[in-house]
Queue: 2 jobs
Job 1
Amino acid sequence: MKLGRLNHIGVATPSIADSIAHYRDVMGATDITEPFDMPEQGVKVCFVNTPTHSTGSGHSDSGGTQIELIEPLDENSTIMGFLAKNPLGGQHHVCFEVPDIEIAREAFEDMGKRILGPTRIGAHGTPIFFLHPKDMQGMLTEIMETPREGGHWSN
Amino acid sequence: MKLGRLNHIGVATPSIADSIAHYRDVMGATDITEPFDMPEQGVKVCFVNTPTHSTGSGHSDSGGTQIELIEPLDENSTIMGFLAKNPLGGQHHVCFEVPDIEIAREAFEDMGKRILGPTRIGAHGTPIFFLHPKDMQGMLTEIMETPREGGHWSN
């Protein structure tokens, strides 16, 4: 396996609206996607797009690692436990891209890494799975198939 | 202020050697910098360089958001408290670039954000400061001046 792009860092928040205001008004983000619900995970998410260059020719770019803001939809949300321990929110997971999700899943299984549940469609519309933080240096780690050029992944 | 590049995520580890082996052997990283000591912070650090594209033309690139691995140098290290709570290590901070550290410091101060200590030289050789996690959505946040093209920042 070859290390893929750090697609996003997942950041839990008790209020996605407050977090959007923070990234816009305090940090100066100009490119934040519209929040949407993922009911099967019990979360509402949106993405703060970050630039690949801080200084330079002034051309706009937002192809850097994203910040995924994650708010619980209800009491059964997968992030309720995290927010109980971190009421202000905080860094919840990291997500790396791979070219092929099945090959990656098999590779992590072969290395004895615990995979949390089945492969499913993630917030970018491509297949993803999560790895147990205790097998990943203390970090909940998402593995995501790179979106195909020109559009969404489809089967 | 305009959102800058997500330069790196800081990841605490009880053993930088073990973490390097993890990123190399499990995640497939091919570009990891040599660890070096920062005695004034009580830490040893190195950087895992990540690609900006996972798939594509096969050209090598490593200009993505870095993973900064941080191991304590001694019992007084700034990350001992974090590791006491997270013995396996984990996500410790995030670091965004700004074009001018003094302007950024003044802007955060004007917004009432608590700054932790003086501006100092960080692991990339450019000036940095840290913001209190309680003022930053639960995340310890480092602000770093973008390295000048062609070399290190100098005064």
Job 2
Amino acid sequence: MSEPILRAQKLDAADELAGLRAKFVLDEVVYLDGNSLGALPAAVPARMEDVVRRQWGSLRIRSWDESGWWTAPERIGDRIAPLVGAAPGQIVVGDSTSVNVFKALVAAVRLAGEGRDEIVVDATTFPTDGYIAESAARMTGCTLRPATPAEVPDVVTGRTAAVLLNHVDYRTGRLHDLPGLTAAVHEAGAVVVWDLCHSAGALPVGLDEHGVDLAVGCTYKYLNGGPGSPAFLYVRRELQDRFDSPLPGWNSHTEPFGMRPAYEPAAGAVRGRVGTPDILSMLALEAALEVWEGVPIDAVRAKSLALTDFFLECVAAYVPEGAVESLTPVAHAERGSQVALHCPGAGDVMKRLIENGVVGDFRPPDVLRFGFTPLYVGFADVERAARILAGTLS
Amino acid sequence: MSEPILRAQKLDAADELAGLRAKFVLDEVVYLDGNSLGALPAAVPARMEDVVRRQWGSLRIRSWDESGWWTAPERIGDRIAPLVGAAPGQIVVGDSTSVNVFKALVAAVRLAGEGRDEIVVDATTFPTDGYIAESAARMTGCTLRPATPAEVPDVVTGRTAAVLLNHVDYRTGRLHDLPGLTAAVHEAGAVVVWDLCHSAGALPVGLDEHGVDLAVGCTYKYLNGGPGSPAFLYVRRELQDRFDSPLPGWNSHTEPFGMRPAYEPAAGAVRGRVGTPDILSMLALEAALEVWEGVPIDAVRAKSLALTDFFLECVAAYVPEGAVESLTPVAHAERGSQVALHCPGAGDVMKRLIENGVVGDFRPPDVLRFGFTPLYVGFADVERAARILAGTLS
């Protein structure tokens, strides 16, 4: 038996989170695409059946009160809160990430106040953040300034209203320095918006500790909420009273059933709502979040780093030198929970990998992307993935 | 046996749509709140089970292609299209109604072009439309002018950019003159946005026929899509190329997986998308729409009018004169699919009605609201509701 296989056995045997895998519906496939769509938590199907048949089918309209539908966005936000280092009452769930980026960025410009007319946006961002930032700039009379995260401390000035950054780069898996960049933005007197899509549920974020102003994130990656499950919006408590949403729907009114013609925003996280929330997706997410009960995010982070370390080791051991090149930083402080490999013909390579039971994804033009979800990926999976990758490339 | 009971029997016996009730999960309750949350179509639970267990649980990420998740927003839009008189390719499903009102209204102002800086909004609107219109006006440099639908032909001028109207008033059930008001807005050179929340699935709308520019609507009322199911957006084909969305998310990009930094909007209905759609809610809606197969909307309208006529008759027969007063117009051309009764102490009356198996809803300060969904409400239900109402009031 080869050395990596033995190592994997030892690592799995010592893995304190190994038992969590049983809380998911999985098969023999090595699923390394949880950074795109998380696997199905085993509690979800029965919950959805109850939501559909009993809550909707029998109780119908009464469920808005009796089944807790009305309060779900903040209740579920409070379940996400400890995973991203937020005290309760600051996160609301609903709408897509893109819509939440719009809310957060426009609100950030308004918080920054007069005389600041520039939005700095991560030049390496997942595209939707850039598109939405462009619209937010256009609609608030700002100019848009793209900058890499490393450049941010040098480009923020007294003109900067808001800075939109990604915590982990979707393509390379690079983890950016949230505490340092947040401090740099604040030093310039600007407001920071963090996109946590690729970090929420994968590593500690420390929103409150680091004084982050606003943040958004998706719930269908490391939080396993299901396809297109609603995103979340964090507004730091001290900013909530001044949070001025560009999407002031009736669900964010202080008295939504008062049907008043004048808008009066609710206090607290509720202010981040817009229209009627999509309850089916929302309650699937709530069931999915139960797997986190008693799971410390620090333990998740430790296992995530061990998994990506081990994957890079196995790739080095199995794959002929020069066939692939890691785009993911070696330093732990700069690594998210994925490994991106530059690989000629990556599109075809990923097809063959999937045919052979290893699911990652392909990002054009030539990147193989592998996500490692510590809740259900083990070290034997990692060894197997690297071994099959080597076979695919040879 | 009293006269209304006999009449109900005859009407039910002659009802060509009576068989559709079997396609819903219902019980002995008289459910007259389908204008708030439609009843559960019987096909939904099994479909959701398949979506959750097989599509998400087994196929996982592959379902974006293999289970048709990616194309769902337009495919489901095309199922709604015939119900609102739209040819295929003009409706996209996703986001909440409020978010779609924002997209439509900002896009309408941009379509109207330079020199027009006023948004006219229905002064009797469901509040969220007014709140969102205020935000759209603020962000496009327009002023907001409230006007009742009847006043619209007189207030639209060469300054008017866009007019936002409700097809059916949520409170009184009054149906507004969509063809006439659309023509009046067009005569002034402005763009019209119709909110179809209380008409889609209840009566013919004729979007194409009447040259409507933009429309939005919800799917959890007469379309029975489930709690908070995604809303829809209609953009008339001739306007699609100039539709300039304030929420240009990656899902509306011409090549979403190209991950290009510059936004290039897709052609067609896709342009109305924003972020990743909520697939669970979306596919529950798709299953729910199957009940419409072969059901002509004209037949639905004819039964709806017969139901509301009969309810008003029964109320007149059973309820002591002066105890309630209908706010819903007598003329068919001015009536939606609901009856609103002014009633002192309406909040308490509705509580007692619900305790006695008749579910409608209460709108402050003093309105009892009863919605009549022709797909599953019968004439015996109507008679019983009026009889129990009379008992509650005596």
